[in-house]
Amino acid sequence: MMLTSAFIKRVVETRHFEAQARDFVLANQKIRVIGVPELLLSSTEAFVHLPVFTGMPDLTIDLRTDLPQLEDISSDGVLHLDQYNQDMLQFLSGDFALCQISYPLHTYQQCAPFVQILRAWLETKSVTVLHAAAIATKKAAALLIGRGGSGKSTTSLLGLQAGLDFLGDDYCAVSMKPKPVAHSLYSSAKFHFENAERLRFLIPRKNPDLEKAYVMLSQTHASQLIPQALIKAVLLPTLGGQLGFEAVHPQTALLALAPNSLFQLRSSHTGFAQMSQLLRTVPCYRLYLGHSPAAIAPIITEFLES
Amino acid sequence: MEIFELNSPQVAAEVLDGEAMVIDFKNGLYFSLRGSAALIWSLVVTHHSVSSITLQLEARLEDANELIPAFIAKLEQQELIRVSSQTTTEVQLSSSNEPLQNPELELFDDMQALLLLDPIHEVEPSRGWPSASKKV
Questions:
Q1: Which of A55, A81, A265, B131 could form a disulfide with A116 if both were Cys (CB 3.0 to 4.6 A apart)?
Q2: Are residues A247 and A283 in contact, defined by beta-carbon separation less than 8 angstroms?
Q3: Quick check: A206 contacting B, CB < 8 Å?
């Protein structure tokens, strides 16, 4: 059952009179977020690198500090996406999402806002949200996958430092038709404080709650943030070894990609099948990171340009 | 003649270049199927009976009579497949003579703790799902 238009109309009628909209195009979809200014600004900062659009949105996300008529939206069939964070309840039905956020937002909400809504809704458009990083040259992108701590974020940020284009350090979206394309979701990036010296070109925001520092790259590297790029390869960064690439079986890549993406993002069978399709289509390599961080970006650049 | 089917929707599988990955969405376990396991899996979920699969592969797999029923029993034990009421698919003898390696089922449970976290009381409030609270 979808939210009825009458219910959506009632929800719209309860909007705060100061509510504003922020529009952006993500994975070729027009997204509109509506909320009061302070909530809107904070929750959409990670999207400011994306192009804007005119006209009607494909998806509307309505932000509230208090939800109207909760009993209506908890009825059967309405997707209740994020029961895991009491401070960010999310409901999605059709092309309308209602999202309750407590203000001020936590850092993870600022860095990856509405990730559950986007994952679930984009899946209906054959776009899969992945736990992956992506960097690119003007020619093509590499999707970086692996478990936390495998080197995805650091590799993508070293690429950024070396002048590569950047699509994401933690989450990306992928579409397969007509060709495999990586889409940027967020302009945020996180990294461990222990890597701060290596990534000193970034000025992290202070956040004592997190193990990781975070930055909004739109403020410092706007020209390198691109909305999408063709995927040339899937790379599994691996600490140590001799810097270089080694072809891996797609099953190895699926094992590195799917569990995190599926269980963290509560993805579905559809998402699993789309990940498999990606790895069937695009060659997969282990990228041994070696012992010289400065050499990593050049070898990726050379690989993508070849 | 026992016939099985995928334990859907709880379980999903993808076969890639002769290997398979099977995910149990309910309990957070996932499996890598190697050797002849992916081939056997493909036959099982397309309603080939245990005896039919054994017959099809016995020329290519040493100890097929023991290994194949035991492997399929493991799949059932892990609730990746369930008994089906479908009629059996016709036996198609393999045109390949290439020897097969023993079926291997590797289980991964590293996502299980994440999936089974109490979403209200065991999640780190400042970091959100799926970060476990340090108290857990």
A1: A81
A2: yes
A3: no
Q: What is the pLDDT of residues A162-177, one digit of tens each?
A: 999 999 999 999 999 9
Cα separation of the two ends of chain B: 47
Residue A177, CA distances (Å) to A109, A128, A144, A174, B136 in order: 30, 12, 20, 10, 43
Beta strands B104-108; A165-168: pairing state? unpaired
Residue A54, token pair as written in the block:
């005119």
Cα–Cα dist B32/B107, whole Å: 7
| CB-nearest partner of B16 from A254, A263, A264 | A254
Angle of helix B50-57 versus helix B37-44 axis, rounded to 10: 140
Among the listed residues A298, A195, A282, A280, the one whose alpha carbon sits nearest the alpha carbon of residue A244: A298
For the segment A69-97, the average pLDDT, to the nearest whole number, is: 60
Q: What is the mean pLDDT of chain A?
A: 86
* Cα–Cα distance list, A96 to A17, A58, A125 (Å): 20, 9, 14
* Predicted complex ipTM: 0.74
Q: Which of A108, A255, A269 sits opposite B21 (nearest CB)?
A: A255
| A272/B23 touch (CB, cutoff 8 Å), yes or no | yes
Alpha carbon of residue A254 to chain centroid: 19
The type of residue at A143 is L
Q: Which amino acid is at A69?
A: Q
Cβ atoms of B52 and B21 within 8 Å: the answer is no
